[in-house]
Known about the structure:
- The chain has helices at 2-20, 23-29, 32-55, 74-84, 89-96, 100-114, 119-128.
- It is mainly α.
- It folds into 2 domains: 2-55; 74-128, Arc Repressor Mutant, subunit A (Orthogonal Bundle).
- It is rod-shaped, with a radius of gyration of 26 Å.
Amino acid sequence: MKKLVLYGVVMGLLFLSLEILNFKTLVRQVSMEVYGALVGVIFLVFGLWLGVTMVQKRQSTPLNVKPPETNLSEREYDVLQLMADGKSNKEIAEQLFVSLNTIKTHTSNIFSKLDVQRRTQAVQKARKLEIL
């Protein structure tokens, strides 16, 4: 919601700046091509800024840590590390760019492989086994 308001304010400021330029006076003093180029540049810069802001990919911190010799897959190990960091399933899914159901499957596999029932038990047992 804050971004939407910010974009609205910026757009309003752009239109206000065009009004300040006073179209009629500017067209009389400067050729139409120059005015058109000026307006084009203003909206090009705004469009590029808006595009970069809206399309900018989320930065994820690659874990790049090879799992110790266990029966856990690399992705399960990544999930286990993020669980140990206190992240929720939704946060883990967003960081690893997978669906929530995929994280639930990995979590279930981790519980099964570590023979535990809950996340806290999984993290505790992984630390005891020196996996984390």
